[in-house]
Amino acid sequence: MQSKILSKRMLLGIILLGFILFAILLFNFILKNPIQGSSALLIENVATLPNQEYASVGLPVRLKIPAIGVDSAVISVGLTSDGAMDVPKDPTDVAWFNLGPRPGESGSAVINGHYGWKNNIPAVFDNLHKLREGERISVEDEKGVTTTFIVREIRIYDKDDVALGVFESDDGKAHLNLITCMGDWNQVEKTHSERLVILTDKE
């Protein structure tokens, strides 16, 4: 009887030791592989964003901003687990928010991209802050149709601001809003302190 009790205790001890070793390995992996800071803003009540009919406008595939030399592939993203717009994995790509309208549809389409990539690797929106009102941005869709937008306004948000207004509009017109990071780098949180938003209107 005593040997059976000892065997059970040994088994429980082995299981506990295995769990502790797994936790240590996972912790070390996270420390060695920090997540690159997101250029996204938090979005509240995303379910209230209007459903769009996508009959006439194709999926965006390319973003061009001649004034700052951007000519990049567009990928499709949704939300992260913490309710922020996801970001592209490649620093040279941009990401379109697929829970909102497509660029050229009525409403506010949103595209984000990285700034200040790790190890000084160039990122697609490193020079987004140089854009000025009146400059042009174009999006090519999967059908080969290009839609042009004109910069209307430039805004700066704190990284923790809720920016639902960037993701929706109620004027019945087509808009495209671009988002990236700026400000100081927070080594602990692995992100920048601010978000730059470029608001544009369809030409």
Automatic annotation (TrEMBL):
Pfam families tied to this protein: Sortase
InterPro entries: Sortase, Sortase_dom-sf, Sortase_F
Keyword Ribosomal protein in record: no
Spans traversing the lipid bilayer: 12-31
Record-level Gene Ontology MF annotations: hydrolase activity
Keywords for the protein's UniProt record, in alphabetical order: Hydrolase, Membrane, Transmembrane, Transmembrane helix
Protein name: Sortase
Source species of the chain: Candidatus Campbellbacteria bacterium RIFOXYC2_FULL_35_25
